[in-house]
Write a structure and sequence with these properties.
This protein has 259 residues and is of the alpha+beta class. It has helices spanning 11-20, 38-53, 59-70, 135-146, 190-198, 242-253; strands at residues 3-4, 7-8, 23-31, 34-36, 76-84, 100-107, 115-121, 151-155, 162-165, 169-173, 179-182, 202-204, 216-221, 225-232, 235-236, 256-258. The two termini are 18 Å apart.
Length: 259
C-alpha cells in the first residue's frame, strides 16, 4: 500500500504529480526496520523542501509516515518519500505551497553485478537537489542501454570532467589506492556522505583522459550501497579490486537507526 499524507492513495490524488511533475524526494533502504543515514535523509527532505517550496518539513512527521508505510514488513525495502503540492499547477507554480508527502515501498532489486557505463555530456537541473525531474537522466540511461551498456555516467557539458551517474554518485580508486570523488556539481548522495565519513578520501576534478590510470571505480546510492564499475566506455576497470571490498565493509559498519 502506498500512502499520501498517511492515507491510502489512489489515481486521482496522483494526477497533479503526473501532470505537473514538480517536487523532490529521497529514497531510503530499510533492512528489517533499520536505516543507514536516516538523519541525513530527513535533513535532505527538509533542505530541499525549503529550496523548492519555501516550506520546512517536520522530521518526526516524515518518520512517522515512513513507519506507517513500512508497517511490519521485514526484509529489504526501497522506500521513497516524494514531496509535492497538488495545488500548484503549470500556470502558477509560484503560489504559496502546501507540500504533501507520498510514501511508496518496493523490494530492493539485485545490484551485485558490475556496471558497464558510457559517458554522456549532461548536467541535471539544480543538481544539488534530488528533484523529480528525471526525464533527462532516464533518457540518457535508455540511450546507454540501447547501445549495449548498463547505464550512463555524466560529464560536465563544457568540460571533459566526470560528474555523477544517472541516479548515483561515482568514486574512483587511483594508482595509490586513494578514494577520489569528482569535484563537480552533483547531488550530495547520502551513501557517498556516509562513506566519506567512514574512509579517507580526496575530492578533485577527474578528467576522462585520466580514467585509464584509475584502478577501479564504483557507484553509490542508498539502494545499491557500493557497486563496482567494470568499464567506462572502452576503458576497463577492476571490479574485484581489494579497495572495493574495503569500502563495502566500511559501509556495512556504518551504524544504522531504527525507524
Amino acid at each position: 500500500m502506498d500512502y499520501l499524507n498517511g492515507e491510502p492513495v489512489g489515481v486521482d490524488e496522483l494526477k497533479a504529480l503526473a501532470l505537473t511533475n514538480f517536487g523532490h524526494f529521497t529514497t531510503l533502504r530499510i533492512d528489517d526496520g533499520r536505516v543507514k543515514g536516516l538523519s541525513l535523509h530527513l535533513d535532505r527532505l527538509d533542505a530541499d523542501c525549503r529550496t523548492v517550496f519555501d516550506v520546512a518539513l517536520d522530521h518526526e512527521r516524515v518518520r512517522s509516515l515512513i513507519r506507517q508505510a513500512v508497517g511490519g514488513r521485514t526484509g529489504s525495502l526501497a522506500v521513497r518519500v516524494t514531496v509535492f503540492d497538488p495545488g500548484l499547477g503549470v500556470a502558477r507554480p509560484g503560489a504559496d505551497a502546501e507540500p504533501h508527502l507520498l510514501v511508496t515501498c518496493r523490494p530492493v532489486g539485485d545490484a551485485s553485478s558490475p556496471l558497464r557505463v558510457t559517458t554522456v555530456a549532461y548536467q541535471r537541473d539544480m543538481p544539488e537537489v534530488k528533484h523529480v525531474g528525471l526525464f533527462g537522466q532516464l533518457a540518457a540511461r535508455r540511450t546507454a542501454q540501447r547501445a549495449g551498456f548498463d547505464d550512463a555516467l555524466f560529464t560536465e557539458p563544457d568540460t571533459a570532467f566526470v560528474a555523477e551517474g544517472a541516479t548515483w554518485n561515482v568514486g574512483f580508486i587511483d594508482a595509490r589506492e586513494r578514494v577520489v570523488w569528482p569535484a563537480a556539481r552533483v547531488l550530495p548522495g547520502v551513501t557517498m556522505r556516509l562513506l566519506q565519513a567512514a574512509h579517507p578520501w580526496e575530492r578533485r576534478a577527474v578528467a576522462l583522459a585520466e580514467l585509464p590510470e584509475m584502478r577501479a571505480a564504483f557507484a553509490t546510492n542508498a539502494a545499491i550501497g557500493v557497486r563496482a564499475l567494470a568499464t567506462v566506455d572502452d576503458v576497463p576497470l577492476d571490479p574485484e579490486h581489494r579497495m572495493l571490498d574495503v569500502l563495502r565493509r566500511r559501509y556495512l559498519d556504518v551504524s544504522d537507526d531504527r525507524l
